[in-house]
Amino acid sequence: MSERESMPCDVVIVGGGPAGLSAAIRLKQINEELEVVVLEKGSEIGAHILSGAVVDPKALDELLPDWRDQGCPMAETPVTDNWHWMLSKGGKTSLPHALMPPLMGNHGCYTGSLGNMTRWLGEQAEELGVMVFPGFPAADVLFDDDGAVAGVITQDMGVDANGEKKQEYEPGMEIHAKYTLFAEGARGSLTKRMKAKYDLEANCQPQVYGLGCKELWDIDPAKHVPGRVIHTQGWPLSESDTWGGGFLYHQANGQVAIGFVTALDYKNPWVSPYQEFQRWKQHPAIREYLEGGKRVAYGARAINEGGWQSVPKLAFPGGALIGCAAGFVNVPRIKGSHTAMKSGMLAADSIAAAIAAGHEKTELSDYDSTLRESWIADELKKVQNAQPAVAKYGGDIGTALAGIDMWMRTLKIGLPISMKHHRDHEMTGRADLYPKIDYPKPDGEITFDRLTNVAFSYTNHAEDQPCHLQLKDRELQKKSELEVYGGPSARYCPAGVYEWVEEEGKEPQFVINAQNCVHCKTCDIKDPNQNINWVTPEGGGGPNYPNM
What we know:
Strands 1, 2, 7, 8, 9, 12, 18 and 19 form an eight-stranded mixed sheet that branches. Strands 5-4-14-15-16-13-17 form a seven-stranded mixed sheet, covered by helices on one side. A two-stranded antiparallel sheet has the order 3-6. It is globular and about 65 Å long. Helix 10 packs antiparallel against helix 11 (395-410). By secondary structure, the protein is α+β, with helices and mostly antiparallel strands. It is built from 15 helices and 23 strands. The longest helix has 20 residues, at 337-356.
């Protein structure tokens, strides 16, 4: 074993997304002497950020009030008009804004690249003296003798696929901190361990997820309306008793961001979220925007959908969860960056006060309690039954019930009912109980196969390294995932990582093409036996999203 180098600091933040960077900026705003480290697994800040995005600037206004005049790219495109379409196979019906609660409006919001906004936040953090280290995934957690989090260990570099050290081997570094914030995003590998070690989900509903697939298009300038925001629901998921919806955002530079979210609680194991996204693009109302245009980028990411009732205990000795690591997405609004940023700011307030009082590695219970009294809680409580209502009663009835519940809560006459969730992997049905789905072949102009699209995520991993998609039991994968559930991994993965290879006279072989992985975490969530464990690969590996 090579002796690891160590580095002391006041606060280490795992994840350089909006939540982590907001926490870092706030810490330096409060006390510029604090030593703050941000670790980011992507090759650069923003490389792994994927979102629509329509951003509510509420938290940004609190953190950096002059952001519109400081070169933040999100300021380029304010939302100008807002549409919500109910799709049938060949038509659409616009849902009147008057039927929607005020919270669902996008007046005052902005649409653009969340990745570019995050890059800008990284610049602001570094100007304040935050030490930002891209390409350094946190792979393990340090604990003191009392069981408190004492920092993290970064990923070893230069290990081959057999676990042997290569000539260029470099051991990971120990980052020792008074407090550690986990800002890994949805389904973070270390966050999973913290939830288990400290039983953080003992008093909440399980987290549930959706898979969002996204493409960025250059479209015909005559069709581009800067600031136009379109959301859809209904077809094509209505045909497979699945739910979710699409978005089409007209952003800067003649581009539109288009995407499709499929809830991962679907029962039919023959459903392919990626191919449902491609089908959706062929709807006449969507296709008309894309014809004559060019796809320039692709990516995918899991999204928290559990809402308020799935928020776990947030603080534990020496550490806390912030952002999507905890799960603050407002599902009906399809927004989470503003709540993620605010959670990071609240955690920073708590940590700065604790350090000023001479504390370290304590439990930040005031962060947990303050957040549960903040506007994050007010907003998420209004929509807490929207996701489970649609999940239980389907798109049409569920949407109506969700709307009624949101209106009642907005008017402060809501019933004291918090609907429950079921873990996504538990909802997957046996393959023999559902019809196979015959998806159309891609046309290469509007629709594309997965491997072609993965090339537009600019994903790259060092070839000779341990597989970061850990299969716990290979025999279980064959006996259950394939023989009982029909091998859904080959369909739920939006990057073609998994395949069952059958050769004449031989047993089917489960192949993991880890080099394709876009770090969406769907396999970690949806595998019916929870037999796949996603861990961090070598630093800098994964997608390199431009303008996403």
